[in-house]
Amino acid sequence: ICSGTIYGLQSHLIQVEVDVSRGLPCLVMVGSLGSEVRESQERVKVALKNSGMDIPPSHISVNLSPADIHKSGTGFDLAIALGILTATEILDAKVLADVFVIGELGLSGEIKGVKGVLPLVWEAFRQGKKQCLVPRDNYAEASVIEGIRVAGAGSIQEACDYLQLSEEEQIKEELKQRRQETEAQREWKKRDHRQEEKALDFAEVHGQENLKRGALIAAAGFHHLLFSGPPGAGKTMIAQRIPGILPPLTREEQLEVMSIYSIAGKPLTKMRPFQAPHHTISPQALAGGGRIPKPGVLSLAHRGILFLDEMPEFSANVLEVLRQPLEEKKVQIARTQGVYRYPAEFMLVCALNPCPCGYFPDRNRCRCTEPEIRHYLGKISGPILDRIDICVEAAPVTIKDLDAPASGYDTKTLRVMVEEAREMQKKRYRETAYDFNGEVSGNDVKKFCRLGEKEQRFLEQAYEAGQMSVRSYHKIIKLARTIADLEHADEISVAHLAEAICYHSGKRLFERRNE
Fold this sequence. Notes:
Layout: E1 2-7, E2 10-21, E3 26-30, H1 35-38, H2 40-50, E4 59-65, H3 77-87, E5 99-101, E6 104-105, E7 111-112, H4 117-126, E8 131-135, H5 139-142, E9 149-153, H6 156-163, H7 167-179, H8 183-197, H9 209-221, E10 225-228, H10 235-241, H11 251-264, E11 274-275, H12 283-287, E12 288-289, E13 294-295, H13 297-300, E14 305-309, H14 316-320, H15 323-328, E15 330-335, E16 338-343, E17 347-352, H16 370-377, H17 382-386, E18 390-393, H18 399-403, H19 411-428, H20 445-448, H21 453-466, H22 470-486, H23 494-503, H24 506-513
Parallel strand pairs: 3-4, 5-8, 8-9, 10-17, 10-18, 11-14, 14-17
Antiparallel strand pairs: 1-2, 2-4, 6-7, 12-13, 15-16
Helix pairs in contact: 2-3, 9-19, 9-22, 22-23
């Protein structure tokens, strides 16, 4: 019987082999099994008995192949039970040919939902399986994969009844299940609809045009963004509105994001993720962890936004966890049984106050000492700041700003601008693995972001004057390319480079901290 297991984000199809022979009555399981898999022998025996399926006393051997892959989770229960029924000739082996099976069993014979069904069904489809039999609770996410027949069952008896139908009757049953939209599917659609309705509008933000401009450029090129300014200046308001102007996920990206959420046991969504962890989060919760590592917040933000509000309030250990994912776009967690890898390609958006009280450098209101300011900002290391593309300082909001009508563009208009810039990038990177300007590696910057002689000399002068790192140099070029895309310009100009250099002011923040 074909079943499967998850290793990190990788899905492996596992062959559940069952042999029933004469001998001392027992159920023996082998194949590099985790504790949850070993416990399934008791669940399977009792579930079969309580379902009215009498298995004669026999020596039952179960092997999960290939044996060199560690198996964990409770999803093998149903495949083992069906394998025993097939080996004892209660079921015909032909009915399970090319069928992928997964599900946990309760002692009453009920089939319970499991985590990670979507990526496993996706892998089964890629490997040529024609059908999959899943728990009824997982039917909604399994049916997301098109091109493979999906059936949900609530008990062992239901699963056996379905398998014994003719192919035409099975297809009718599958169509009937698709028409009968489950509660999970309805809740899923309602949740996405509610999120779309609750999308916040940039038109509601008064003033702070420079912050809006920074958010627009960051969204267009998927650049990392940092807002700095006093409390109440609108930093969080603007950050919360950025998801509304991001381009929608492609079909491939949707499956990738939903696979991560399926493995983590989170509700699925087709919208770009927005993760805003509290500053008390631990490094393990951020990166992922556990005895069998599960995706952390960094992976849950994949293809979306990770928002760190009040960034210096996060511990230095937590912030340093960001270093590798920001550079390599993935999280690696080492355990004795191997290395688990989860994607973490997110857009980092941060907000911070310039000092503990939030009003520096206004010495009429700020009473923080220089050591206090250095200690406060000292949690943010130079390498982290160097990985942030856009740094924008917010000015205090005045009464005139509040009384004046909202100026600038609304979310709908900004989304159109982002999508137009995204189309230019799509054409530019159509034969590569890149999607946005912010993803281009240093080796390919010259190839895709060419500069004229005048622009090259201007950037070289800025490089020498600002004592930039090589990473900063490349980020400025990519940022200028995004600014040019927003203006529908084919070539990068000096004006685009000048604006990019102004936004890349993280170095100034780092120098001020060490004064």
